[in-house]
Write a structure and sequence with these properties.
24% strand; elongated
């Protein structure tokens, strides 16, 4: 049987298409095996400090008597620098005080002759009569600086009994909260080392560094008979911070 030229071409096209379809079913693509990296682990640093101080007891004080140095040491035992160190002095275990309280009167007759801070990497600074002149910033703004004024003072500043304390940072009042002296408080931290008004360059306590604070006190020569046989206790709390927004 004789086929015409058109039929022959059509048959060849069908055969070619069939060959393509058969080839498509057997084609393969290469790939590598699966490989996985080692584990990536992230650990947060720890801010930690250890405090060494006292307790101290000074018995039978006489007006004009100078007390032995009170020394406080704080070691940065964490994994990072402590950028700011805030402290707060509390009288009579935080009891509410008024100007008629014995603790108030007693603290007002304890004069702070010297108040040293050692910032690792920066050296010693005297807050009284030195670069800080803390006595001009709080209370009556005069020498001598008293333990009462240190306990009443705040790094953020506020008004107490008509005295407007300095305000190196924007005011951030905390309504409805009072300190032990009955005044509205801004922050519980009386002073902050490592920045702000303290003018201390660098971190307050570098990693593995040791911060020190030394108080040299005197029982005032004008302490009256109303303090005979009485006593005063106080303590200081410290907290290390990474940012000033964390001020307590």
């Amino acid at each position: 049987m004789r086929m015409d030229k058109g039929a022959i071409l059509a048959s060849m096209a069908v055969i070619a298409l069939a060959s393509v379809l058969v080839g498509a079913g057997t084609m393969a693509w290469f790939s590598t095996g699966v490989k996985t990296t080692g584990k990536f682990t992230m650990n947060a640093a720890t801010m930690k400090m250890e405090l060494t101080a006292g307790p101290y007891t000074f018995d039978k004080l006489i007006p004009g008597q100078k007390l032995p140095d009170i020394t406080i040491s704080i070691t940065n035992t964490g994994d990072m620098d402590i950028l700011y160190l805030c402290g707060s002095m509390v009288l009579a275990d935080g009891a509410s005080l008024t100007s008629s309280s014995i603790a108030w009167k007693f603290a007002d007759k304890i004069e702070v002759l010297e108040w040293w801070e050692y910032i690792p990497g920066s050296g010693w600074t005297n807050n009284v009569g030195g670069a800080q002149e803390y006595e001009t910033l709080v209370g009556d703004g005069k020498t001598p600086l008293t333990l009462l004024e240190v306990a009443q003072s705040y790094a953020l500043g506020r008004t107490f009994e008509g005295v407007n304390y300095p305000e190196p940072w924007p005011k951030d009042n905390v309504p409805g909260k009072n300190d032990q002296f009955g005044a509205s408080k801004l922050y519980a931290s009386d002073w902050i080392s490592g920045g702000g008004y303290d003018q201390t360059p660098g971190p307050a306590i570098i990693k593995d560094g040791v911060y020190q604070m030394v108080f040299r006190l005197q029982f005032s020569t004008d302490a009256g008979d109303d303090l005979q046989g009485t006593s005063l206790s106080f303590k200081i709390t410290f907290q290390g911070l990474q940012d000033l927004s964390q001020r307590p």
